[in-house]
Amino acid sequence: MNLIKEALSLGFSNAAVMDTKDLVFVPEYRQFCADNLCGNYDLLPACPPESGTPEEMQDRAMQYEKALVLQTIQIAPPMDSALFKKAKVQHNILTEKLARQMQENGYKDVLLMTAGPHKQHSCMSAYCVDAQKMADTVGIDCWKDDGNVRYFSQILFSL
Predict the structure, then answer these.
(1) Dihedral sign, CA of 145, 98, 87, 49?
(2) Which of 36, 65, 83, 150 is deepest in the core (most CB within 10 A)?
(3) What is the mean pLDDT of residues 96-117?
(4) Is 94 left (phi over 0), alpha (psi -120 to 50) or beta?
(5) What percent of the chain has pLDDT over 70?
(6) What is the mean pLDDT of the chain?
C-alpha cells in the first residue's frame, strides 16, 4: 500500500512518512492543554489529564517506528470558529478512514494523533509534539502568512 498516494487520493493536501525517532516532544507544551485553550481539558478521556502525562504519551508514541504525517489546507477561510471546527472534524474523519484502510492492508497496530481531540484519539498537542519541527522534517509548510489554515494529524505504525 502506497501510503502517500492513498492519503492524497482521499483528499489530504500533503502527506509524508517520517521515523518516530525524529519527532520532537516538548513537555512544556502541556501547559496549552492546562490553560484549556480548546475547552476540552479534564472533560474528555482523550485529553489531559486522563490521557496521561507528557512522558507517558511520548513513551506510547515511541513504541511505533514510523509516523504518517497528514495535512489538509483550508484555503483563505473567513474567520469563523464553526467553520474551523468543521474542517478539523473532516480532517480527523479522513485520518480515521486512512487508518482503517491501513489496518485492512496489514498494518495491525496504529496510533492516531488527531487535529484536536477526536473520539478516543488524543491530539498532537496532548502528545506535546512540536508540529513545526515535524513539518520541517518532512518538508511540509506548517505556518505561512498566506491566509490559509493548515491542519495536521499523524498515524503512527510499525513495519
Answers:
(1) negative
(2) 150
(3) 97
(4) alpha
(5) 100
(6) 96
